[in-house]
Amino acid sequence: MPALLDAPSSLRNAYPGAAIQAIRTSPGCSAALEIARVGYAQPGFGTARSQADGDGFLLSVSLNRAQRILYYADEPRPMPLAPGVITIRRADEPYRAELNSPFDFLYFRVAPESLHRVSEDLGVSNVRTLSCPPGQSDPVLAQLGNALLPALADPARADPLFVDQLALAAQVHMIHAYGGVAADSQATPTAARGGLAVWQEEMAKDMLTADLLADVSISDVAQGCGLSRSYFIKAFRQTMGTTPHRWLLECRVERAKLLLLTSDCPVSDIARDCGFSDQAHLTRVFASVVGAPPAAWRRQNRN
Questions:
Q1: What are the residue boundaries of the structural domains of the chain, listed by start?
Q2: Where are the beta strands (DSSP E) in the chain?
Q3: How far apart (Å, rounded) are the C-alpha atoms in residues 207 and 147?
Q4: Interatomic CA distance for residues 115 and 120, integer angstroms
Q5: pLDDT tens digits, residue range 15-69?
Q6: pLDDT at res. 2
Q7: Cα 77 vs. chain centroid, distance in angstroms?
Q8: What's the pLDDT score for residue 72?
Q9: Angle at 244 between CA 219 and CA 276, to 5 degrees
Q10: Cα 32 from Cα 108, distance rounded (Å)
Q11: C-beta separation of 286 from 249 below 8 A
């Protein structure tokens, strides 16, 4: 299973009194990563502060909206947080922030050695630094982080392969988004020739189905897999036999079938609950996949 960490002393010291959950990838994972969730549910936390804390990089992703003042050379700079906003800093840099509203964010701690191994696997030049402008939003890293929340809440029941795959996907994304690697140079030897690697296939499925009601960005999923959008669509089709959009529609149809069999909800409500724009949209897609309209299919299969 993923290794459960006691709340790292650096985080306990930086955020005294905050709730902290932490795990790390399995010992054999080449994309070694430590992940921690740090939260404070009440206003008035005060000052978060830390001194140099080893090497590597700390990436934090905000899970909520919060007020924050960061200090650079003792100069205060208001930098409010919104869901998905990230901050990147070197672990050996002092940190000071004023946090006077409730906050909740994820820390990703990545070592230079891990970045080097993943860069080597990707066939790109060794990434030596990670950086981004203040206040930048990153929906890909936010979605990967949200997928890790159940593992952080209950590490003993977390699937280590799933955690390791997410850690690899997160680092591939970090390298391409913040390591100065051009998207067009993505050779991605970890992908099977002409298709997706196993971890990329699982990552794509997880991201596409994380919220069946949401309009999933194919570009975000491609970035999560470390691929350009055009290559991802081609590789997904070769692996799955259909496009990402069609595969997602079929997942929504499967969800609709389950509700049709197990509930008495009107078809219009089921359409809404499965992410279709309206009943007509569900009926059209359902009939093309199943061969019968949803109401008729329900009658045939509930008798």
A1: 3-181, 191-241, 249-302
A2: 3-4, 19-24, 34-40, 46-50, 57-62, 69-72, 75-78, 86-90, 95-99, 103-110
A3: 8
A4: 8
A5: 999 999 999 888 878 788 999 999 999 999 999 998 877 789 999 999 999 999 9
A6: 55
A7: 28
A8: 84
A9: 100
A10: 10
A11: no
Q: How far is CA 66 from the centre of its chain?
A: 20
Distances (CA, A) of 114 to 5, 89, 145, 168: 19, 16, 18, 10
Q: Is the pLDDT of residue 189 over 60?
A: no
- CATH of region 249-302: 1.10.10.60
Q: At what angle do helices 198-209 and 229-240 cross, to 10 degrees?
A: 100
CATH homologous superfamily, domain 3-181? Regulatory protein AraC (2.60.120.280)
Angle at 151 between CA 148 and CA 157, to 5 degrees: 150
Could you tell me whether strands 103-110 and 57-62 are parallel, antiparallel, or unpaired per DSSP bridges? antiparallel
Q: pLDDT by residue (tens digit) across 83-119?
A: 999 999 998 888 999 999 999 999 999 999 999 888 8
CB 5 within 8 A of CB 22: yes
- Give the HSE-up count for residue 236: Cα atoms under 13 Å, Cβ half-sphere: 26
